[in-house]
Amino acid sequence: MTTSRPAGLVQSLLADLEELAELVRLVAADPSDRLERRGSPGWTAAEVLAHLADFELVAAVRVRTVLTMDRPALASYGQEEFTGRFGHLESAAEALDRFAVNRRATARVLGAIGEADWDRMGVHPVRGEEPLRRTVEMVVRHDREHLEQFRRAAGVAAAEA
């Protein structure tokens, strides 16, 4: 079952890069400590950036593994444990840089694949069989949720972004 190439998914991933860069620019222009402030329960804005950078590494491995192996097991990890253990090891700017470099590389890979590649299967430890298309759709949804979390944690209204 081959469907049309979902070019919109690649554009969505690149749009997330632009959106996140704009949010960080807005926060960096403010002399407050918005990125490190812990208000309500949950991650600080800086921890959200660290999580996005870590998740992008996992997503990149998933994409490349599905494209090069037959029905591979998809990488999994504990996001709370990762962020708790590694989220403080780099500045927000460094986390954003790491996210951006890896996201551009993933978008480049996805922009170069054929239509049939979007239907290649991986096996997620919880969700089971999953075509690459669904994996990428989930990455886009994941980004949107965490970009909103970043806004809330940093105190940046959507209108500012």
Protein architecture, described:
With 161 residues, this protein is mostly helical. The protein has one domain (7-154): dinb family like domain (Four Helix Bundle (Hemerythrin (Met), subunit A), Up-down Bundle), CATH 1.20.120.450. Helix content is 60%, strand content 5%. The protein has helices at residues 7-28, 45-68, 79-86, 92-111, 132-154; strands spanning 121-124, 128-131. It has a two-stranded antiparallel ribbon with strand order 1-2. A hairpin with a 3-residue loop joins strand 1 (121-124) and strand 2. Helix 1 runs parallel beside helix 5. The longest helix has 24 residues, at 45-68.
Question: Helix and strand layout, with pairings?
Answer:
Layout: H1 7-28, H2 45-68, H3 79-86, H4 92-111, E1 121-124, E2 128-131, H5 132-154
Antiparallel strand pairs: 1-2
Helix pairs in contact: 1-4, 1-5, 2-3, 2-4, 2-5
Number of domains: 1
Radius of gyration: 16 Å
Strand order of the largest sheet: 1-2
- Helix content range of the residues, please? 55-70%
Find the CATH topology: Four Helix Bundle (Hemerythrin (Met), subunit A)
Number of helices: 5
The percent range for strand residues is under 5%
- The helix/strand series, from N terminus to C terminus, equals HHHHEEH
Indicate the structural class: mainly alpha
Taking the sheet with the most strands, its summary is:
2 strands, antiparallel
Features:
161 residues, mainly alpha, Four Helix Bundle (Hemerythrin (Met), subunit A), two-stranded antiparallel ribbon, 5 helices, 2 strands, 60% helix, globular
